[in-house]
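Lab notebook page, bench 4
Experiment: in silico fold of construct C2
Operator: M.H.
Input chain length: 407 residues
Purpose: comparison with the prior construct
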Amino acid sequence: MDQKFHDLFSFIENTMKKQNQQKLRGLNDYNMVNVVRKSNHEVGMHSNVLYSLLDPNGLHYQGDLFLSLFIDKVLGIKPDDFGSDIEVRAEEATAENRRIDFTIKSDKYYIGIEMKVNASDQKNQIKDYYKYLVEESERDNKQQVKIYYLTKFGSQPSPYSTGGEAIAVELVSFKKHVIDWINYCQHEIRNINNLNLAFEDYKDIVKKITKQHKGNVMTISEELSKPSAKTLLQSALKLDREMLKIKGNTLFSFFEQVKSCLEKEKYTDISGSINNQDNVATNDTCYKWFVNPRSYKGHVGLFFDCGFNNDLYLLVEVATDHLHFGVVACRTVVGQYELTNIPNKAALDKLLTHQKWKSFKHWYSKDCGNIRALNDSAIDQLLDFESSKLKVDILALVKNIKVCSSH
């Protein structure tokens, strides 16, 4: 092997060791808030967190500190000009029982904030909120009404939401305005550890939804992108040209391991006699399975005669993305095996799932998970079938089916 590739593999191995050392020393990407709610959950995550911080009576005990900074840095209004008797509400109901994400009201302003993380606009949503706040202000103190549209990147609301009317909507974003606000808040409470950590966790979540998140643990891609690693990066890019072949060879090698194991158990590989050889694992079909997953939806695997009754045979295969093993039915036509549909069988229903795919004959199988993604579990299965739980499960299935068919 070329010395450059040896250097690349040594570099990757050392980087992975450093990653583990960092994790053991407490440097990690754990975020307790994110465990409870997904990053893009509007109400459960962002509405709740923002309201808890903006509420002057919140358990942060900082009064209107965070609210004043929000008015200044997000709404763009000087707190001294905003007025008095400030009230913050979440999910304020309109006359039509629609709910505004946030309202911030004073004796001078009635502010409505509509927040969108991933949700789409609703019909006349902005129009109705604006109308409601205008009617409220006219009954009260003729406050100035302003609508803010808070999105990940400062997007415009659609005409579907504004009703096609020329409503002056202020555009604010999580990426800039909310991040800036968080930073100013952290500066003010920098010596209050628990609040500072809470803001840091929320900032991390905002960065995730705005594609700015960078994990604390070093990554191989970041290390290879450094100028000092230029030669190693060249080797990595050259290696990438060969990766589809490597993946195909690895998948074929996996099937060879399966074959060797089952033949030791005195079961017969009948794959060479299957009438549709596109369904049989070869170097070529395994390579094609990885090349273009959108156009190549092949079922690639190996077929075994394990002594089952009723023309049933064992199949271990990869389908569109997942690895399966189970039982197919075949009929013999001029010395070849032709797949046929398996009807519902009570005995097999207890062991496997009846698959009724359009692209393949009905059969019974167990789904072993996504193999195309090549996560750690998939890699372990592909590289070490002999020591895997998969091997144990396949052999156990064969014995169970023999017991069922003998009764």
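Observations: The first strand starts at residue 87 and ends at 93. The longest helix spans residues 3-24.
Next step: discuss at group meeting.
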